[in-house]
Design a protein that fits this description.
The protein is α+β, with helices and mostly antiparallel strands. It contains 12 helices and 4 strands, in the order H-E-E-E-H-H-E-H-H-H-H-H-H-H-H-H. Strand 1 and strand 2 form a beta hairpin.
Length: 299
């Protein structure tokens, strides 16, 4: 089981999935070198660290998180009914497992602090972070260049921009299409999404539609149980697409050793799939109804 986005097993996964060499320790953090361009004409690399995509925790060791407080109607968990507490803790355990599953951990560039920008812009929301990247590719760069981490050097921000600009698309006359094509290309590398096939209309793929939906949701607040439920549904769509993409990516990058590499993570993949099934069932209980937390009951 992967316990964090920086533990040994997580980095073993990153090394296999992204073909990164053994990480080094830099300022107490594991950092690897990732070749994001590696072809016969050019090679470009950047330092990367581990990251969690959807941070969905309801409770830490001390108290409920922001999302937990939404489900509890602003009360402490102990003030809620026993049936609600039971489902709340069950949901929290499942989300805690999924948070560090292979489908929910990735790498992000270290220079420029994209992980800190993600945390600062939208309280670590994955959809708001994609919205900021979309605006970047639309030419509105302030969210990334000036976002969060006030002590960040402009030199490191320029390294980050050089990385992001490598994915910039110029294949359409439409600014919106260019921005989406750029973001889809970036996501294909960072999140192992299945790439669009030659001649395929990218706008009709599940990956494109999910990214578009996430961008549209990223400008909306998560302030109610139904908002949070919808956000988890987006996470499930992301995990299901990433499951497919990881297998496809590993098959392409480890042709001779595909079965061997997948075998290493077989248990993690199977357990993650089971947890997703369980969370789908919990979405159909009224723990997510915008009603009093202590009146919880099964639908």
């Amino acid at each position: 089981m992967i316990k964090s986005d920086s533990d040994e097993k997580a980095w073993e996964f990153f090394m296999d999935c992204y073909k990164i060499k053994s990480p080094k320790i830099s300022r107490g953090c594991k950092v690897g070198k990732w070749k994001y361009v590696d072809d016969s004409e050019s090679q470009k690399s950047i330092d990367v660290s581990g990251e969690i995509c959807f941070n969905l925790r309801l409770k830490d060791s001390r108290s409920t998180t922001f999302y937990g407080s939404i489900l509890c109607d602003g009360k402490s968990l102990s003030q809620c009914g026993e049936a609600f507490q039971e489902k709340f803790l069950e949901l929290n355990n499942i989300l805690g497992y999924l948070q560090t599953s292979p489908y929910n951990i990735c790498i992000l560039p270290k220079p420029g602090g994209l992980n800190n920008i993600k945390k600062g812009i939208g309280n670590d929301r994955f959809d708001t972070y994609l919205w900021a990247l979309y605006r970047y590719y639309k030419g509105e760069k302030a969210f990334i260049i000036n976002g969060y981490a006030v002590a960040m050097s402009i030199v490191n921000r320029k390294i980050l921009c050089d990385f992001l600009d490598e994915y910039k698309s110029t294949g359409s006359d439409s600014d919106s299409d260019n921005a989406m094509a750029s973001l889809l290309s970036l996501c294909s590398d960072l999140y192992s999404f299945v790439r669009t096939k030659e001649g395929e209309d990218a706008s009709q793929t599940k990956e494109y539609k999910l990214i578009k939906d996430l961008i549209n949701n990223g400008i909306k607040p998560i302030a109610s149980k139904s908002d949070f439920r919808r956000y988890i549904e987006f996470a499930i769509r992301f995990w299901e697409l990433r499951r497919k993409g990881i297998y496809s990516h590993l098959k392409e990058t480890h042709k001779e050793h595909f079965e061997k590499v997948c075998k290493k993570y077989e248990k993690d993949f199977e357990e993650t799939n089971e947890k997703i099934k369980k969370i789908n069932k919990l979405l159909n209980t009224n723990i997510f109804d915008d009603s009093e937390a202590n009146s919880f009951k099964e639908k």
